[in-house]
Description:
Elements: H1 14-39, H2 63-69, H3 74-91, H4 98-109, H5 114-151, H6 155-168, H7 176-211, H8 217-221, H9 227-250, H10 252-277, H11 281-287, H12 304-331, E1 335-339, E2 344-353, E3 356-360, E4 366-370, H13 376-382, H14 385-391, H15 394-404, H16 409-419, H17 426-457, H18 460-477, H19 485-497, E5 503-508, E6 521-527, E7 544-548, E8 552-559, H20 562-566, E9 571-585, E10 590-595, E11 609-611, E12 616-617, E13 635-638, E14 645-650, H21 652-659, E15 668-672, E16 680-683, E17 702-708
Antiparallel strand pairs: 1-2, 2-3, 3-4, 5-17, 6-8, 7-8, 7-16, 8-15, 9-14, 9-16, 9-17, 10-13, 10-15, 11-12
Helix pairs in contact: 1-3, 3-4, 3-5, 4-5, 5-6, 5-7, 6-7, 7-9, 9-10, 10-11, 11-12, 12-15, 13-15, 15-16, 17-18, 17-19, 18-19
Amino acid sequence: MIRPARTRSDTLPLQTRLALLVLLGGSLAVLFWLLAFQFRPEPTPPARVAPAVIAPKSTPVVPEIVQAVVSENTGRAASLAEIELIAALLRDERGLRPPAALQRLARLLQSDDETVRTVAQYVAAPLRSNANAQARSAARAAAESALDLTEAGDFPAAIAALEKVAKELPESAEWSPRGREQLETLRSSIVQKRQAQRDAVLAGAEKAWRENPSDGTLNTLLNHPDASFRESATMLKLKLEDEAARRRAKGVEQQRKEGLLRVGWLGFFEHITAAINEGDLDEAEKLCKPMQPDALLTGGVSDPEKVFQSCALEVAAVRALHEAILVKAKRQKKVVVLPLRRGQIEGTLDGVDGRQIFVTVSGAARVAVKIESLSATAIQNIFEYHELVERGVVPALWALFAYENPASAQATLTRNFTQAKLQIPLHWQERFKLERYRRADQDAGKHVMAIKQAVDSGKPEAVKAAIDDARTAIAAFEEYEPLSDVRQGIVGAALKIMGASERQRIVLQTGVQPDPAYAGLVTDQISQYKESARRSDVGVQFGLKVGASGGLQRVLVRFDGLEAAIGKRKVKRAMLEFYQIDSPQFSGAEIGLFRLRRAWTPDNGTWISFDAARKADWTAPGANSEADAAPKEESSVKLDAKKNEWRAWDVTQYVNEVLAGKAQNNGLLMRVTNAEPDFHVRFYPETDLEAAAAKDKSLRPRLILDLASE
C-alpha cells in the first residue's frame, strides 16, 4: 500500500491522521480489487510496503500480503487496514505501546481468515519477542542484583528487589509466568539463607554473652540493618536479661547452675536420642552411666540418679529386643519388609552371622543387615505381637518409635503406657517436663516482648490487646516459676498504662490460679443419653459438651472460695470464661447460663439427679423446671464460626449477690437456648482432656474478677 505523504502532518491531530489513514487504506483496497477485475493485469502483483514496525524499508515485499489487498472482499481489507492502523500507531511515538498493541491484535490473531492471521502474526511476532527479551533482561538484572545484595548481607533489599520485578513482569510476555517462578525460587533460597545466617549469628551472640556478659556482639546486632536481625536480637537480649534478673533474685550462682543443668539435661536427652537412632547402644549405655563427679547428678531434674537408672534400663531393654531378633532370624524363615534407617529391604529371613541377619531377596541374592540398622517398624514386622508381649520387650519397641519420632513422642508414649496401665518411665517424664518448660519460657518471652513493644508505642489499645493475648502464655509459664523481675516490670508498666492502678484482677482456675492448690471452680457434665442419664461419671475425655450428642448435653458449673479470694473488696466485673474447642456443629449456637436453685454436689450430678449419692432428683430431668433453675438467663453468648477461642459470660451480678448474701451459691446451668438438638459444642473441662496429645491446665474454665482498690 502506498502511504500518503506526511506534508504538514504536524498541523493535524493524531486521531484525524489515523482516521484518514483507515479510510484511505480501505478505499485503495477496493480500487485495487476493481482494477484487477476489469483489466486483468499481468501476474506480477503491485508492490505493497510492509508496516514499518514489522521490518525496515529494505525488507522485501511479501507477495501474499500484496495479493491479499486485491482479493476476495472488503472484510479482509478492513482487517488488514486495522492491522496497518495498529502498526502506524506503534510507529508514532505518541501512539500504542507494545502491550496494548498485542491486546488489540489478539482478536485478529484468532481470525478465521488465514491471510489476516498471517499478517497479524507478522506484526505480533517482534512485539512478543521484544516483550520476552525485556522480561528476561529485567529478571536477570534483578537476580544478579539480589545475589550481590545477598553477598553483602542486605537480605531485605535483595528480597524486595525480586518481589518488585516479579510483580512488574509484563503480562504480554509469554515468559513472565516462568520468570516469576524462577524469581520466587531464588527469593525462597535467599529467605532460607537469611534465616540460617540470623540463627548462626544469634547463637554466636548468645554464646559470647553467656561467656562474657560485657561482650558487645549482641548490642551490635541491635543496630543491624536487617529488621529481622534487630527483632531477634531484642528478644534474645530480653531473654538473657531475664535470666540475669532471676539469677540475682535467687542467688547468682545457684540460678546459673540450675539453668545450665536444665540445658544440660536437654542436651543429654538429645544425645541419647541420636545414639539410639544410630544404633550405637554402647554410646547410649555410656551416657546413662555418668562418672562422678558429673554436674547432671547435682540437679536439673527431680532425681538425677533415678533418671539415669531409668535410661539405662531402657537401653538394656533395647539390647534384649535386638537379641530376640537374632534368635528369631536364626530359627525361622519369614517373609519380611524391613525399613532400615537408610533404605528398605524386602525378602525372607535367612540366618544369622554375629550381629547381622541375612535376608534372601529376589533373584536369590542374600543380603546381610546389621541388627543396629533396623528401624522400629522393621523390628515390629519381624515379630508377631504376642511374641513381643511374651518376651516383655513391647515398651522397648515403643521407646524406639519415640526416639525416631520425637515430635510425637509424648502423645504416643502417653497413649501406649496408659492403655497398658503402665507408668511412663521416669526419664521420659522428666524429658517431657523440661520440653514443656522450654516451650513455656519461649512463649512467655515472645508475649512479654510484644507487651514491651506495645508499651513503647504508648497506645493504650495496643497495650490492652498485648496483655490479653499474653495471659494464657504467662499463666502456663508461672506453673513452673514466677515471672522474673524484668518481665514483671514490663507487665507492670503495661498495666499502669491501662489504668490498672485503680483495680486489681484475680483469676480463679482449678489447679492453676490463684495457686495450684485452688480447686473451687468445678463442673459436672449431665447427659440425657440413655447410657448416661443416671451416671455421675460421664466422661469428658473429649471435652465438656452442650447441645446434643446421643441425647441432650448440659453442664453444671460453680465457683467456691470467692470470699477468701477477694476479701472485702467490691467486684467491678466478673467474667466466666470457657475455652471452646473444635466440635461438629457450633457456629450460631446461643449458650445461656441460668441460676440453679438446687444445691448440687460436684461429681454427683446426673441428668436425673442433682445429687446421685443421696438419690435427690431434679423436679424435671435435666434441671428443666423453674424449681431447678431460673427461667431467665443470667448471661448469654452467641458463637461465631471461630474455634479454639475463649468465650466469656458476664456474671457480675450473680457474684456480687452471692458475696452480699442475697443469693445462694448454687452455681449455674449451661445449655444451648436456640434449637438445642441442632448444635454440638465442646469446651475444655476443669480437669485435663484424657485424650489430648498435650494437656494444658491454662485452658481450664476460669473466673476473672476485676476488683476495686481497697
